[in-house]
Design a protein that fits this description.
heterodimer; A: 112 residues; mainly beta; four-stranded antiparallel β-sheet; 11 strands; globular; B: 116 residues
């Protein structure tokens, strides 16, 4: 199975600070169809995951543009340009290029 | 708009089976794929498998073969997941999410607690 390594596991930030989360894959996530099926989700306590980014860098509908995704192959990054209080929770990357789909262990974003 | 309504929390005994449901509305269920996920509280998320509502074709995570069985009822636009021979390791929240719209929509989750 593809292993996704997320760093850091805990991220302490102040409101307004810009932060980044890394997601590294044990295999290239470039599919033979030319797409890279790498997603980012935010899960707030007691809630379902909320998809933020799809196909590496596409911002989901209704997702604030302070969120951005980048990367290729095996290295991917989620950036939040100016953390807001509503951004607190656990962030997960997920790959759906290879079966089975797999998730990173998560990055908990908390207030410093 | 797209809605996914999952069935309520379950308390089941070890060795028993349980059937979870995910009732959908707001989109064409019969030509879509549905994925199911497992999350033990405090841990990351695992992909269980997916089913194509058009013909019932399925794909499973090897880890969940023999544990989970995915089915659909296109007449009610509902996806189901049977979990069998339950153990305490199956205690978790289970989510459904259609692959359409790149996993933009998720059910609210069903908590399954396996306890004697």
């Amino acid at each position: 199975d593809v292993v996704l390594t997320q760093t850091p596991s805990i991220l302490s930030a102040t409101i307004g600070q810009s932060v980044s989360i890394s997601c590294r894959s044990s295999q290239s996530l470039l599919d033979s169809d030319g797409n890279t099926y790498l997603y980012w989700f935010l899960q707030r306590p007691g809630q379902s995951p909320q998809r933020l980014i799809y196909l590496v860098s596409n911002l989901g509908s209704g997702v604030p543009n302070r969120f951005s995704g980048s990367g290729s192959g095996t290295d991917f990054t989620l950036k939040i340009s100016g953390v807001e209080a509503e951004d607190l929770g656990v962030y997960y990357c997920m790959q759906a290029t290879h079966a089975p789909h797999t998730f990173g262990a998560g990055t908990k974003l908390e207030l410093k | 708009q797209v809605k996914l309504q999952q069935s309520g929390a379950e308390l089941v005994k070890p060795g028993a089976s349980v059937k979870l449901s995910c009732k959908t509305s707001g989109y064409t269920f019969s030509t879509s794929y549905m994925s199911w996920f497992k999350q033990i509280p405090g841990q990351s998320i695992e992909w269980i498998g997916m089913i194509y509502a058009g013909d019932g074709g399925t794909g499973y995570n090897q880890k969940f073969k023999g544990k989970a069985t995915l089915t659909v009822d296109t007449s009610s636009s509902t996806a189901y997941m049977d979990l069998s021979s339950l153990t305490t390791e199956d205690s978790a929240v289970y989510f459904c999410a259609p692959i359409t719209w790149w996993f933009a929509y998720w059910g609210q989750g069903t908590l399954v607690t396996v306890s004697s």
